[in-house]
Design a protein that fits this description.
Shape: globular
Helix content: 40-55%
Structural class: alpha+beta
Radius of gyration: 28 Å
Length: about 525
């Protein structure tokens, strides 16, 4: 692995000038390395961060990639990491014309990293430097504690796999800046409905009583009197109101953070070093979380700009056919599976087209005539402005959820593929299951990364018991993985661990012709003294 030569660096700097002229924004300092396929195979398990801490699973992944490469050799074009300065890697087999296209692709990625709101908490950090410091710290802990360091890393990483960090990232991206609800608002909107769970007629009766007091005494006196009566009837009201305000301002702790900060086992002086490892694993996960949430829009953005800029570049001369072949390979729509480059690119182009014609407004949404909708064109010239707003504020979920419409699905002939067995030929058949936008949208959204939502039941948790609740969202946990994860959590907590979850049970049909019926069943997993049992709660 070595830095690109001065001739290639000059080409990169020229690409920067053209990209900035087109509206992309990024810091001037960048590092570019030429790497071999072997280098890429060794860096991939570390998310292309050369300084990331060492861990045995990385070595296993490298060996696995070597095996794949022998059977199916590939030639990756590039990869880029969100660091300060941004670092990108280019395959040593790339010709110059291809590197120019790739430079534009990489610069668009860097623009996305440095301007999308979901990456905001990474903008001021030198993650490569932080990773190097973490790597040295873990190496020193290995010298002191030996294999126990790798046990803790493994347990922490298994925890990381079931933590989504959504609440944490939401509070990082959108700091609390709303006005606190008044005590009277909390009483009617939360206390009566969520704490007391009053039926609707009692809620309306209470609201009517308050409104009558306002008519008789005025709002200020009525509110003071009413709150005094509430306190007499419900002595716990003030404490619950203060707790509610506090929770609004603070994100609920994710499972990894909760165990790190509250585990009786980790609070012991001899085990304090383990908290350091949990912090490293968690910080690394938080740093990479935005990339997981923006895979499709990020690749679509980079594909849009490499096409937009490279086709205007005079250095494309005599390589038009080569470029067309490479670009089609990268951005063609997959009929089976999901190509994030293809869907992201076409959604961005679709939004640009809608904005250019003035279709991103309520006036257009009210039009019912198909012919009038097709011919609607205000020629606003705001297409680029619209897609730059996408780049700044959107994630994969918001992009897909808002802009996968029936018009978009029909325009690109998209559909959901079904699979059915062909018993005669001993194979399977693929068929068009649906061309509806809602079905296609659901298929794509279901393919997004979505870890299980697991919370801590504080009422049932004690120093000797950690009680976890899996909030069922239609997908059950992978039962084969549950025991190993619970054993790791039991070690980190220092006591029994219970996990309450829901499983989908298939009832066997009475006859072969009938389809099985499915039902939900509550299940409690219990891990005590490294023995895991499964029972009905």
């Amino acid at each position: 692995m070595e830095l690109i030569d001065q001739r290639a660096k000059k080409i990169m700097e020229e690409c920067k000038e053209r990209a900035r002229a087109a509206g992309l924004q990024f810091e001037n300092e960048t590092l570019e390395y030429i790497v071999s396929n072997r280098d890429l195979l060794e860096l991939s398990p570390k998310n292309m961060i050369p300084t990331l801490y060492d861990y045995w699973v990385h070595d296993v992944e490298v060996l696995k990639e070597y095996g794949k490469y022998k059977l199916y050799p590939t030639n990756p074009y590039e990869t880029v990491i969100n660091s300060r300065p941004a670092i990108s890697f280019y395959n040593s087999d790339n010709p110059d014309w291809l590197n120019i296209m790739i430079f534009y692709h990489v610069l668009a990625h860097i623009d996305f990293f440095q301007n999308n709101i979901h990456f905001k908490h990474t903008w001021d950090e030198d993650f490569v430097g932080m990773a190097l410091a973490d790597k040295r710290l873990i190496a020193s802990l290995r010298n002191q504690y030996g294999r126990w360091v790798d046990y803790v890393i493994e347990f922490a990483r298994s925890l990381d796999n079931i933590v989504g960090f959504y609440d944490t990232l939401f509070h990082i991206d959108y700091p609390f800046d709303k006005e606190e609800p008044s005590a009277i608002e909390y009483y009617f909107n939360n206390f009566l409905q969520e704490e007391l769970k009053l039926p609707q007629h009692q809620l309306f009766a209470e609201l009517g009583k308050y409104n009558q007091m306002i008519e008789e005494k005025g709002e200020k006196i009525a509110t003071t009197t009413f709150l005094s009566e509430i306190t007499l009837r419900y002595p716990e009201f003030d404490a619950k109101y203060k707790k509610f305000i506090s929770q609004m301002k603070q994100p609920s702790a994710d499972l990894l953070e909760f165990i790190r900060d509250n585990s009786p086992f980790l609070k012991k002086e001899k085990n304090e070093w383990m908290k350091t490892i949990l912090t490293i694993i968690r910080n690394t996960a938080l740093y990479f979380a935005p990339q997981v949430r923006t895979k499709i829009i990020n690749e679509g953005w980079a594909s849009y700009w490499h096409d937009e800029l490279f086709r205007r570049d005079d250095r494309i001369h005599s390589h038009e056919t080569d470029y067309a072949r490479v670009n089609a390979y990268v951005t063609s729509i997959s009929r089976l599976g999901l190509n994030p480059y293809a869907i992201g690119l076409r959604l961005i182009q679709y939004v640009e087209e809608l904005a250019e014609k003035g279709k991103l407004n309520y006036e257009f949404q009210k039009i019912e005539s198909i012919e009038e909708r097709e011919n609607y064109d205000k020629k606003t010239g705001e297409g680029k402005k619209a897609i730059f707003n996408l780049r700044k504020y959107f994630s994969d979920f918001t992009l897909l959820n808002i802009f996968i419409t029936q018009e978009f699905v029909d325009k690109h002939d998209l559909f959901v593929v079904g699979i059915k067995p062909d018993f005669e030929r001993q194979t399977v058949q693929y068929y068009v299951k649906s061309r509806k936008a809602e079905d296609y949208k659901k298929m794509i959204l279901d393919a997004l990364y979505h870890p299980p939502y697991i919370t801590v039941d504080l009422d049932k948790t004690s120093e000797k018991l950690l009680y976890l609740v899996h909030n069922f969202e239609g997908k059950q946990l992978i039962k084969e993985f549950v025991p190993d994860v619970l054993v790791g959590i039991e070690f980190l907590w220092g006591g029994e661990v219970n996990l309450e979850t829901t499983e989908i049970i298939a009832d066997r049909p009475a006859t072969p012709q009938e389809k099985p019926k499915y039902r939900y069943q509550k299940v409690l997993w219990v891990c005590k003294d490294r023995k895991v049992t499964r029972r009905n709660p």
